[in-house]
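Quick one, T. Sequence first:
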Amino acid sequence: MNEDKKVSIITGIYNCAPTLDKAIESILAQTYTNWEFILCDDGSKDDTYEIALKYKSKFPDKFVVVKNDKNMGLNFTLNKCLKLATGEYVARMDGDDISLPTRFEKEVEFLNTHPEYAIVSTPMIMFDENGDWGQTSVIEKPQIVDFVHHTPFFCHAACMIRRDAFLDVDGYTVDKRLLRFEDCNLWFKLYGKGYRGYNLSEPLYKMLDDRNAFSRRTFSARMRGVYVKYTGFKLVNMPKRYYYGLAVEFVKCFLIGICPPPVYKALHRKKQSKAGIQGE
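Structure tokens:
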């Protein structure tokens, strides 16, 4: 295995003490070993920061741990990590998820052999306290027109991006109107600059999707998604004939917003279950 390319993993951590050990251990278990793990605590109230420091103490050459003075949001926090990154490739990771052992090996191999792509990601297996229950679906080679109906079309936490491309678009845009949609804005910025991405077919990442994740999908957060799509269409010079997609997104967000939470949760899980894992 060729390990000449260094991977910088950037992670914003916030009140994830119960899950952080497993997330970090999944990185330590990677078959690809040329990496650095940069974690920034975003004002946690629990033992999250102390857990991260434990790994920094044990593996001082592999971990970088910093913290914000107060809660600043994921876009600001990831940019802080990005400024410290020294690897040619930058991988995302969340503090409550799991990277499968061959994730970095396969993502690095793809970027090494496909210089025409700046982004690579994979489908994600969804899990909760009862185990795996579904899988996201992806588009193999997303095109600009796919933004109309499929934003986001890369799983953010599972992605790996060339650092030069990341820096070329100045990382994440720090704007409260983009919170929880900083990834969608990033894809628009990268595609607007001419970069392209690819989705591997094999799921190499497991995302915790439990009742806490569901509670974060508020109506106001979803409406921010409409704003992100509107500004993104401008970034990629989306042809005017496709702007109807904004109205579709608005109606979809409105209907989801008035849908009783138990009903929406059931529909969400049914959709993800059909995409991948059945009967779990």
